[in-house]
Each structure stands twice: as C-alpha cells, then as structure tokens.
C-alpha cells in the first residue's frame, strides 16, 4: 500500500439489530437517532476528517429507508461527500455484502461497521497501511481491553495478526479478553479473492487472511461502541453529543504550516515549517480538529489557479496523515481588491483580516469559538480570529510544535 490516500469507505449498514428489539423493526440500526441525529451521519462525519470523500453503503435490512435518508444525511455533514448504495440481493453476511459490491470498490478502500462508533486517530491506521509491504492484504484497527493478559479475538506478533477469532474465548467476559477488533479496516482488492456470495467477514474471511500472513493490526487507545448492544446504544447518545465540544486548532498556511517563499502554489515550492507535521499529529492525537485557513492572492494575481490550490491542500492532508495526524478541513480565499485577474478582483469577507473562512468552518463543524485557537504569523490572522471570537496567537517562527504544543496542552 504505497500511499495514505484512501478516498473510499464501504460501510456495512445491513444488520438486523435484533438485540435492540422493536427499535429496529421499522428503522435500520445505522439510522437510529443518537446525539440528536442518525448515527450513520456521525460515523461519516468522523471518517471524512481523514480524507474520505466517497461512501458506499452496503445495505440489506430496510435498505429503502437508508436510500431515502441519503440527501438528509449529506446536508448534515460538514464536508461535501458522495454517498451511494450497494444492496445485497439476499441475506449475504458481512463478507457477502462486500462480495456483491466489488464492482464499485476502489483498488484500495476502507471498510467499517455502520453501527460502530470509534474514538480513535484513524491516521495511525492509514500511516501504517501506507508502509505495509506487498504481502499485506489488509490492516485493521484494534483496541486493547483493560486486561490484555489473556488471549482475545486477535493474536499479535509485532503488528502481524497471526490468528483472528470472531468471538473471544470467553464471550461472557469480554472486559478481560485482551485485544479486539474495532471494526475499521484498510484493504486492497486482493481481499475480494477470499469472498463468496454468502459469507461472514469475521468468521470466514479474516481468519484466512491472517493465516496466510496478509493481515496486520494497529492498536488504538480510543473507545469502541457497538450500538447494536443496548448498553452501548445508551452510552453513544451522550458520547456523540460530546463530539460537538471537540476543540479546534486553526492554522494559517504560509509562514505557519509552511515556510513562506512568497505565493507558494505547487508542491515543488512547498517546504514544511519545522515541527508543522508534529504539531498536526499532536493535535489530532489529543482529540482536536485541525483546520487550515489561508489567503491565496496568488490566484487573484494569475500566478496559479484554484485547482492548484486545492491540489496542494489535498496533498498536505495526505502528508499529514502519512505522519499520523490529519487536517480535518480547509478554507482558502482567492480574492484580492487589486487583483490582476478580473474575476477575482473583489473585497471578500473571507479574506483575512475578515473572519469569513473561520466562521464558515465554525458553522459547518458546529464549533464553540471559546474552544478554538488560531495560530498565525501576521496581525491580520489575529484580527480574523478576534472577529470570529477565537483566541489568536502570533507564531514567531522556528519550530511550530515548540510554540503550539504548550498552548494546546494547557487547553486540553
């Protein structure tokens, strides 16, 4: 797996939800309301933070309800994403659902359970998968339970999964069963060779991949909830609401994230500021959103176009994930009052010192400005932060993590 760039996630959304009784008689589990909105929207929101822009929902039970809900879910998400559906023709199991969707899957894709909530830095999985050799077919996110002294669902040698079991040996005592599957996977299409029209991913597929030496694991410290379990269903309501209280770090680009060489519009001229990738990783691991907000008058001056700006911002996000962090979202302003390109000659409320870019992110991600901080290298950055109700700090240069780390740690 040569790159962290995985844009597609297949979401297993066809479970019956029998343990929840009458709750799932007319509503599929992923659409049950938790935290004030359908659970599935929270899952897609979290995955979109890590570069996923395309979701393929693998549906079965009450598929029509999920299909009807897609426009409303898209409207609730902070980032624009594509959502499509692959409906299993029969009750096919988790592996069978993937089998019947294979014509829609990318060369590399994420796969996750549509009724599972993970509180984890998914970039650690993506970064590890990017370094995997050709013998690796897939990598899964794992969670270590409080007592890891006993064997559990997964047996590890280093990060190689040597055995995988669908259930702990003592299923009545999961709390002491060791390392478990957190329900998020990075696969390439070779895993499809193990599938049948009706099969279980956990029982029939993953054990075979593990036995062949093609399965790796990445441990996560975050919690894991399965809303198909009544106790987790109740906990998830409060935990999901808490996501709207996540702190947010806003970063200017030129002079903060990268060395300001003057109108940087290409990767060739881009140089990471010392400590920038470490700062993004530290913020992500500490549970912060990370946003980049940047004036790009180079577009207005005809030095490069918007496609180049977007390409560079996307590449920055991929590089951040390669290093174990993520840039959740970005905003840029291509306008300037003295533009040489007429289409971009304007006074814009997005151009700092105006707060438009920050306010748009606050709205989209439902942020509390009091829980946000802006790092810039110009007075205009701090003026924009103040106008948005955000604390601002002027970066003096040199190592970004040395400057930002103490600020984040004090607020966390």
Give a short summary of the structure:
This protein is of the alpha/beta class. 31% of the residues lie in helices and 22% in strands.
Would you mind describing this structure in some detail?
The protein is α/β, with parallel strands linked by helices and 412 residues long. It has 2 domains: 8-242, Spore Coat Polysaccharide Biosynthesis Protein SpsA, Chain A (Alpha-Beta Complex), CATH 3.90.550.10; 246-411, 3-Layer(aba) Sandwich (Rossmann fold). Helices cover 31% and strands 22% of the residues. It has 12 helices and 18 strands. The strands form 5 sheets. Strands 5-4-1-6-11-8-12 form a 7-stranded mixed sheet, with helices on both faces. It has a 5-stranded parallel sheet with strand order 16-15-14-17-18. Helix 3 crosses helix 5 (201-211) and helix 7 (276-285) runs parallel beside helix 12 (400-411). The longest helix has 17 residues, at 306-322. The radius of gyration is 22 Å and the shape is globular.
Secondary structure: elements and pairs:
Blueprint: E1 8-12, E2 33-34, E3 37-38, H1 39-48, E4 54-59, H2 63-76, E5 82-87, H3 93-100, E6 108-113, E7 116-118, H4 122-130, E8 138-144, E9 154-157, E10 160-164, E11 179-188, H5 201-211, E12 215-220, E13 224-226, H6 230-242, E14 248-251, H7 276-285, E15 289-295, H8 297-300, H9 306-322, E16 329-333, H10 356-365, E17 372-376, H11 379-387, E18 391-394, H12 400-411
Parallel strand pairs: 1-4, 1-6, 4-5, 8-12, 14-15, 14-17, 15-16, 17-18
Antiparallel strand pairs: 2-3, 6-11, 7-13, 8-11, 9-10
Helix pairs in contact: 3-5, 7-12
């Amino acid at each position: 797996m040569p790159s962290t760039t995985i844009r597609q996630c297949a979401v297993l959304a066809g479970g019956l939800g029998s343990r929840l009784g009458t709750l799932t008689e007319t509503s599929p589990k992923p659409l049950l309301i938790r935290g004030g909105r359908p659970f599935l929207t929270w899952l897609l929101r979290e995955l979109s933070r890590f570069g996923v822009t395309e979701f393929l929902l693998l549906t079965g039970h009450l598929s029509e309800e999920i299909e009807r809900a897609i426009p409303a879910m898209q409207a609730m998400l902070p980032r624009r994403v594509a959502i499509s559906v692959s409906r299993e023709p029969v009750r096919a199991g988790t592996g069978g659902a993937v089998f019947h969707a294979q014509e829609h899957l990318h060369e590399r894709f994420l796969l996750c359970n549509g009724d599972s909530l993970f509180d984890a830095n998914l970039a650690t999985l993506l970064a590890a998968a990017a370094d995997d050799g050709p013998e690796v077919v897939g990598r899964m996110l794992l969670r270590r339970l409080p007592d890891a002294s006993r064997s559990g669902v997964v047996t590890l040698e280093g990060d190689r999964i040597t055995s995988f079991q669908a259930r702990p040996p003592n299923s009545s005592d999961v709390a002491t069963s060791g390392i478990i599957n957190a329900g998020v996977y990075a696969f390439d299409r070779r895993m499809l060779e193990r599938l049948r029209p009706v099969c279980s991913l956990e029982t029939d597929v993953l054990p075979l991949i593990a036995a062949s030496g093609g399965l790796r694991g990445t441990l996560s410290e975050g919690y894991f909830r399965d809303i198909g379990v009544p106790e987790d269903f109740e906990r998830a309501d409060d935990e999901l609401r808490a996501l709207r209280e996540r702190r947010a770090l806003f970063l200017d680009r030129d002079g903060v994230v990268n060395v300001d060489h003057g109108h940087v519009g290409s990767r060739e001229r881009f140089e990471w500021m010392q400590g920038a990738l470490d700062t993004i990783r530290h913020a992500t691991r500490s549970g912060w959103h990370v946003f980049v907000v940047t004036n790009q008058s180079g577009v207005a001056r005809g030095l490069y176009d918007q496609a180049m700006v977007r390409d560079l911002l996307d590449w920055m996000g991929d590089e951040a994930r390669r290093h174990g962090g993520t840039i959740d979202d970005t905003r840029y302003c291509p306008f300037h009052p003295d533009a040489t390109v007429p289409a971009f000659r304007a006074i814009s409320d997005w151009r700092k010192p105006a707060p438009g870019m920050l306010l748009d992110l606050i709205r989209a991600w439902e942020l509390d400005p009091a829980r946000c901080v802006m790092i810039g290298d110009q007075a205009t950055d701090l003026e924009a932060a103040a106008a948005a109700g955000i604390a601002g700090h002027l970066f003096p240069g040199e190592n970004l993590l040395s400057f930002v780390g103490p600020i984040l740690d004090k607020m966390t």
